[in-house]
């Protein structure tokens, strides 16, 4: 990956709806080489996909929580079952396995507190291998969906 590829990636992170013509102009390439580079970046996996960024507030998703999970065991079967079950929960926007304690961090979004409580009681607390759940409410998002540092 060279500087031109990084410029292409930076532009697409800012606006994934750019046409190849607009992108070529911004990175100062002709159309065909720009198109080839974009396709190469897609094939390599550097560009994993394209999607719209939605405003949760506008969609009525006003309650965000971070849920810390401590597991009962760290064997492969327990972790695989837990991770598979977490992937099935659409309200879990992000799930990360951590070093140390707690074992996992989930970013969860629901429409309100009662919806979160139902998700917590019916799904999160019943996930395979969960020993302890601790949650905290997000007061304010300071940085979100930032472009990856390509420098």
Q: Can you give me a brief rundown of this structure?
A:
The protein starts with a helix and ends in a 14-residue tail after the last strand. The longest helix has 14 residues, at 31-44.
Which structural class do the helices and strands define?
A: alpha+beta
CATH fold title of the largest domain: Alpha-Beta Plaits
Low-confidence stretches: none
How can the largest sheet be summarized?
A: 4 strands, antiparallel
- Main sheet: strand order: 2-3-1-4
**Quaternary state, please?**
single chain
Number of strands: 4
- Overall form: elongated
Q: Give me the number of helical elements.
A: 5
Keywords:
151 residues, alpha+beta, 4-stranded antiparallel sheet, elongated
Q: Can you walk through the features of this model?
A:
- The protein is an alpha+beta fold and about 150 residues long.
- About 35% of the residues lie in helices and about 20% in strands.
- It contains five helices and four strands, in the order αααβαββαβ.
- The chain has a four-stranded antiparallel beta sheet with strand order 2-3-1-4.
- α1 (about 5-15) packs across α2 (about 20-25) and α2 (about 20-25) packs across α3.
- The longest helix is centred in the first third of the chain and has 14 residues, at about 30-45.
- It is elongated, with a radius of gyration of 20 Å.
- The termini are close together.
């Amino acid at each position: 990956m060279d500087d031109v590829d990084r410029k292409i990636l930076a532009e697409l992170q800012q606006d994934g709806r750019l046409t190849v013509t607009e992108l070529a102009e911004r990175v100062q390439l002709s159309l065909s080489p720009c198109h080839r580079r974009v396709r190469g970046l897609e094939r390599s996996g550097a560009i994993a996909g394209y999607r719209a960024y939605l405003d949760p507030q506008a969609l009525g998703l006003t309650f965000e929580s971070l849920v810390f999970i401590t597991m009962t065991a760290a064997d492969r079967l327990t972790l695989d079952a837990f991770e598979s079950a977490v992937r099935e929960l659409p309200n879990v926007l992000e799930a990360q396995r951590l070093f140390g304690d707690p074992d996992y961090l989930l970013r969860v979004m629901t429409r309100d507190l009662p919806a979160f409580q139902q998700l917590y009681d019916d799904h999160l607390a019943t996930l395979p291998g969960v020993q302890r759940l601790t949650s905290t409410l997000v007061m304010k998002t300071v940085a979100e969906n930032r472009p990856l540092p390509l420098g």
